[in-house]
Design brief:
12 strands, about 25% strand, 2 domains, 2 helices, Thrombin, subunit H, six-stranded antiparallel barrel
Length: about 300
């Protein structure tokens, strides 16, 4: 075979072509150009949306076994929680039924005792529901506004409570709203009763969070941590027996004749949405008699 007819070109496997560095620079520039064009023209967005739409059934099909396993485990866990919740609810229902029966018996016994002692019937306190609108903007006070005012029959001085106890007292009444001063306000005060010792005192707001304190208590007063203080009902505002605060700290100082007693309000105003506004007890009490004029004793003897 003549030497001139031999093909001296290398086979395709050994062909070098464009250098690797040139390819790297070209594709890098192309990538930068495409990213810049996409940020300006947004031409990739329709393509991306079309691909996402086309691949969505595939993704859903692939995720179906995973969701099936997770859903099955959550179903059995939820079923166990529901069974446990139903068991607890039934136990609480039985306890509440027993408590309600005892309350009915005590009410009947109370009515018989009042009739036996010829006492006037217990006061029936009127109430109305209200919703908390917002908290006052004054950072130095603890006040909230409710959506019931004089148009709904709210009176100035009305107690405001929730399911945990006394929240505060209505201090200002507007036609469609009212201002409620909370127990923790520095200007708030409420008469309380310690049911353990039957001792009456007054609780004052500390102006910070839910803190309150008992003032003017003797250093040897029988007050212990954990004592629950209730409304005494002698002020003509709050009905008796409502939860007010719990004693958290008793500091008996030797050098002082008084004890520093810290309290925590039972009703936490944070997160409260619905409240109950009671009519003041004094609105149902008989009016106080007018003081009789003082009679001066007659002088003995005449003028000399």
């Amino acid at each position: 075979m003549p030497l001139g007819t031999i093909d001296r070109t290398p086979p395709p496997f050994f062909r070098q072509g464009t250098s690797a560095l040139t390819k790297l620079a070209f594709f890098s520039a192309l990538a930068v150009f495409l990213m810049a064009a996409d940020s300006r023209i947004k031409y990739i967005q329709p393509i991306r949306a079309a691909l996402a739409t086309a691949l969505f059934p595939v993704q859903s099909a692939l995720l179906f076994p995973v969701k099936l396993v997770e859903g099955g485990s959550e179903y059995f866990i939820g079923l166990q929680r529901a069974i446990a919740g139903e068991r607890d609810a039934r136990a609480k229902l039985v306890a509440q039924a027993e408590r309600a029966t005892r309350v009915e018996q005590l009410q009947a016994e109370n009515a018989r005792l009042r009739a036996l002692l010829d006492l006037r019937p217990a006061l029936v306190v009127k109430s109305r529901t209200a919703e908390v609108l917002y908290e006052a903007t004054d950072p130095y006070s603890r006040k909230v506004f409710i959506d019931r005012g004089s148009a709904a029959g709210v009176l100035r001085g009305s107690p405001v409570i929730n399911d945990q106890g006394v929240l505060g007292q209505v201090t200002r009444v507007y036609p469609l709203s009212a201002e409620v001063t909370l127990l923790a306000d520095k200007d708030a005060a409420i008469p309380v009763l310690n049911p353990r010792t039957q001792a009456r005192s007054a609780a004052f707001g500390a102006g910070d969070g839910h803190a309150m304190e008992l003032r003017f208590m003797a250093g040897n007063a029988d007050v212990q941590e954990g004592d629950l203080l209730l409304t005494s009902g002698v002020d003509g505002v709050y009905p008796p027996g409502l939860a007010v605060a719990t004693v958290t700290k008793v500091d008996r100082k030797v050098e002082s004749g008084f004890a520093r007693i810290s309290l925590t309000a039972n009703a936490k105003p944070d997160g409260v949405r619905h409240v109950l506004v009671l009519d003041p007890v004094g609105a149902q009490m008989p009016s106080r008699p007018e003081p009789e004029p003082e009679v001066k004793p007659a002088r003995r003897g005449g003028k000399r």
